[in-house]
Amino acid sequence: MNIKKLSVFAAALSAAVMIQAAERNPWTHLNFDNDPEDFRFAIVPDRSGGDFRGAFTNALKCVNMMRPEFVMTVGDLVQGVTTPDRLTEQQIELTNFTSKVKAPFFYVVGNHDITRSRPAYPLHHEDSSKVWREFYGDRTYYSFKYKRCLFMIVDTMSGRDSRKNQCAITPEQYDWINKTLADNTDVRWTFIFMHQPAVWDSSDWKRLEKGALANRKYTVFAGDWHSYVYVKRNGRDYYALSVAGGCSAGNIGKANELMGVEYGEFDHITWVTMQKEGPTVVNLKLDGIIPGEYLTQATTKSPVPHPVVDIPADPKVAEKMQKLKVAHDAKLAEYRKAKAEKAKKAKKAKENN
């Protein structure tokens, strides 16, 4: 059959493809999913309570492999609740880790980053706030815009200082939230990041939901609980993330052992894809993200020989592959022999019947 070939230029917005097309083609369509307004970012959750399983540094390695445009967090990236000197050491350790992340990395205050003051530790909040300022400046809440989306970082520890009646969000920050929302009514979506999801049931937050947030498209992310849960409030998506190295919330006495996905306890990063219709949120388990170079012929434990080897070839690997081939061929011959004998016996039994 003669098929007239057409030279098709598929201008897929930010990219283009040159391809020979015909009446029938070995592909589904050429509508590439690459709108220049689309973007993707990662969220790294808590590591507090022990920093177990090497999961936090693994999460940062996974982020680098996935190559998001930037990285968000939901607080508690240090163990905290300690002396200023020790907290300084923890922040040095943290910044050494995050300095290796290729994408911009945005910090959020958690209750281990800046601690609540209490009778036994009346200056805990002030001391940990001072350490925060030494590393990250005066802002504990802030905002930025990216591709016509507003990102708001809320500090749920701002009012948990030595004041008599502590609060999650101070009146000053509450006013800032309202003003920031009022100044950015033209954005296509708003993303809000905070540490403590318990704030969602506070009177101040409910006022925001009924007021400045009421007619806005937005999504909220938090941490703190170390137990993943999705909540729908007023038609909006709210996510409390699990951990990336943090301790178990429910496995009493075994803090280093997470209970599993069905309990909301798993090491992960959250991956958000923003498109015209809104964000898509997925969670990537850290033990399910495997680098392409994970297994080589030298390190694999597979009993199957691979006839294609590196160039230049490693003599030890070549010898290993040859031994595997001999062993594999022997097992295969043994299996075929046993299969043939079984078939022969079955045939004979059938004839006797």
List the helices and strands and how they pair.
Layout: E1 6-12, E2 15-21, E3 39-44, H1 55-66, E4 70-73, H2 84-98, H3 124-136, E5 142-146, E6 149-153, H4 171-182, E7 189-193, H5 203-210, E8 218-222, E9 229-233, E10 236-240, E11 268-275, E12 278-285, H6 315-352
Parallel strand pairs: 3-4, 6-7, 7-8, 8-10
Antiparallel strand pairs: 1-2, 3-11, 5-6, 9-10, 11-12
3D architecture notes:
With 353 residues, the chain is an alpha/beta fold. It has three domains: 1-34, no CATH class; 39-288, Purple Acid Phosphatase, chain A, domain 2, CATH 3.60.21; 299-353, no CATH class. The protein is 28% helix and 20% strand. It contains six helices and twelve strands. The strands form three sheets. The chain has a six-stranded mixed β-sheet with strand order 5-6-7-8-10-9, with no helix packed on it. Strands 4-3-11-12 form a four-stranded mixed β-sheet. Strands 1-2 form a two-stranded antiparallel sheet. Helix 2 (84-98) packs parallel to helix 3 (124-136). The protein starts with 5 loop residues before the first strand and ends with a helix. Residues 1-14 have low confidence and may be disordered.
Mean pLDDT equals 91
Quote the CATH topology of the largest domain.
Answer: Purple Acid Phosphatase, chain A, domain 2
Number of helices: 6
Domain module count? 3
CATH superfamily of the largest domain: Metallo-dependent phosphatases
Structural class: alpha/beta
Biggest β-sheet: count, sense, barrel? 6 strands, mixed
Name the poorly predicted regions.
1-14
Describe the global form: elongated
Measured on Cα atoms, how large is the radius of gyration? Answer: 28 Å
